[in-house]
Amino acid sequence: MPPYWALGFHLSRRGYGTIEEVKAVTQRTEKAKIPYDVQYLDIDYMNNYKDFTFDEKRYANLPTFVDDLHAKGRKVVIVLDPAIASNKTLESNYPALDVGINRDVFIKVNGTYLEGTSWPGKAYFPDFSHPEVRPYWTQMCTEFRKSVRFDGLWIDMNEPSNFADGSLTGCSKNTLNYPPYGAGVLGSKLDGKLFEKTLCMDSVHHAGKHYDVHNLHSYYQANVTYRTLAIIIPGNRPMVLSRSTFPGSGRFVSHTLGENLSTWEQLRASIPGILKFNLFGIPFVGADICGFALNVTEELCLRWMQLGAFYPFSRNHNSLNSKDQDPASFGKTFINLVSKALYTRYELLPYLYTLFHLAHTEGSTVARPLLHEFPNDKVTWDISYQFLWGPALLVSPIVQQAASSVDAYFPAGIWYDFYKGEIAKDGGGLTMTLMDEGYINLHVRGGHILPLQKPNVTTSLSRQQAMGLFIAPDELGTAKGLLFWDDGISYETQEHKTYLLVDLTFKKNKDKAILYSNITIGNFPEAHYAFLGYLTFCNQVEPSKVLINGKTVPSKKLSYDAETMVLQMEDIHVKIAEEFELSMIFK
């Protein structure tokens, strides 16, 4: 279960050469009032690319910069690579190496530490299956966090990646390293070398030979890193991003789809990639928005930002020597359009957070293909570029170059325009052409209630705002929804049941409509500050009277559009921690 702040927008890149460059990005993003919660630091911050160090010249005053971001309600995630510099000539005292040797936690081959190469040069590789590696990793992270108070960790290069083939001295000639079948390795010629750009297959971990545990390496590191953060930031839910994963990793980490290219093809490919990882049990997933490698065009980055605002994990990240692609680096029109998409994401975060609660407790998907909700509709079987958040929110992005519209398919039922509340489609399956109106197309499925919240520039500020509901009745005039709410940061709130879980139900007939809540779990005293402030009722006849818990709602708080049949209520101030009943009486 991710912390709430991690559902906000993340900014990252390889190539922040100095702390001043990072500051420039944060300052222009703040000035543009673009919603943004998390700033990443790639290996540029390190001293000679060594874990648990920072460059005190290029990144002078890094600890103060991190503290300043915290004061603004933002978080910092730093990268760590699973390769510890082994070249003692670089520095006489390097605790990450010295303590690792003393605890004997590095992977071995033929009785000695396997030495390869990575960003710092020569390197040893921690064995994350070793019983001593957790106290080692915790000690290193604890000491480093005394100076740089990071909030999350990004574990990269953890396939494990090795710039050498196997080791600096090669690998033994045996059937593990040279199996009797061709191995498909990226960039290889199928010559049978399994150790290309990784470790020798006969190297030894505590859990077994590398041949047997290679695919588990990142899982072991994810487990160790997650538990390390739970120790060093006590009481807080860990945030770990991992490049490599294995089935079960979703319990510990979020995931990116890898170092993609800034192309339209890879924009489109990101959607099925994200849907697949939800099936793998890793729902907190996203692609590098606007692409990692190559210089992105403004049009492509705009479409990607609009789509990426609806990735479960939303991060803009690019490569060394590529031009800036953070939203505030573009012009005013671009900034306005991207801000709309991100503010919409932030408004929908209570719904997204509830979906993550269900994924955590029931194993359901957060982002899902249409065929999962409509398995008998054969048209949905071939839809790759539309997707759903949970069962209720349909996302239909524009993913073609120079396009000003998208042909979107609507399965059977009623579908409502999220922005206008009006019925977009009613009846059997239908493909409609949706025009570009300056925002990504979102539609709510009839029969559902979406919890919302007025958005702000950070999740911490958003959580202080009024909450809302979007009520989208089905053909029978009914709708249901769920809200999960806690403090957003505490560790294992589900396991300890220290949260609020609210069932929402809407029913109507020709004389009356009722919206009511039922609190199924109410063990979150701090929820008293959270309140419903605005409601949107779709496909609604204008009522003659509205009552909340028996008290009449003043007409000045109501607005009705007869053309769209949308009823809006504002400034109603209903506590979510208390059960309520809203009644509408019709003329």
UniProtKB/TrEMBL annotation:
Pfam families: Glyco_hydro_31_2nd, Glyco_hydro_31_3rd. Gene3D superfamilies: Glycosidases, Golgi alpha-mannosidase II. Residues 1-355 form the Glycoside hydrolase family 31 TIM barrel domain. One of its GO terms (molecular function) is alpha-1,4-glucosidase activity. It comes from the Eukaryota. Residues 363-450 form the Glycosyl hydrolase family 31 C-terminal domain. This is Uncharacterized protein. It comes from Larinioides sclopetarius.
